[in-house]
Amino acid sequence: MNGPNSFTQYCDDVRREADGRPSLMGIYPNRAVIELDGHKRLPKICAYTVITLPLDRQLESISVVSFWNDKKLQGVDIPDEVITEFNKESNDKNSKKQQLSLATIIEIRDLDINDGGILLTKVTVNNVQIESQALRLTPRQTVAVTHADD
Description:
By secondary structure, the protein is mainly β. It has one domain (5-140): Immunoglobulin-like. It contains one helix and ten strands. The protein has one helix at 80-91; strands at 5-11, 13-16, 22-25, 31-35, 41-54, 62-68, 71-77, 99-112, 117-125, 128-140. The N and C termini lie far apart (75 Å).
């Protein structure tokens, strides 16, 4: 079986539906031009990452970290209790499952994108790093046009 993999989708917000499903709002493509309206900061952006883990090996650790232009912004370490439950499932010889998926959300607030750059999320599983998709953000300032009365 293949090793773990991950996919990150960047969006404005992640909400939960009544039945518990995630709902991603304002999804970004791999490149986006952001209207800043005289500001230089993006108020909020989320990195929704899904990690697919094969059940043919034991887990020791999982972390998910978002970077802006190679500078660490925020991250999350998956709790030991989750790792333990995964390993129990992995050891269950009666299970027909071949893999499990795990989703994380990193909420980044007040990101300075004045000069533009790349937002990248990296997943580390058992000390092996997996880079997810990058998002290139380019700011564009809008200028208000006023007309003088004649």
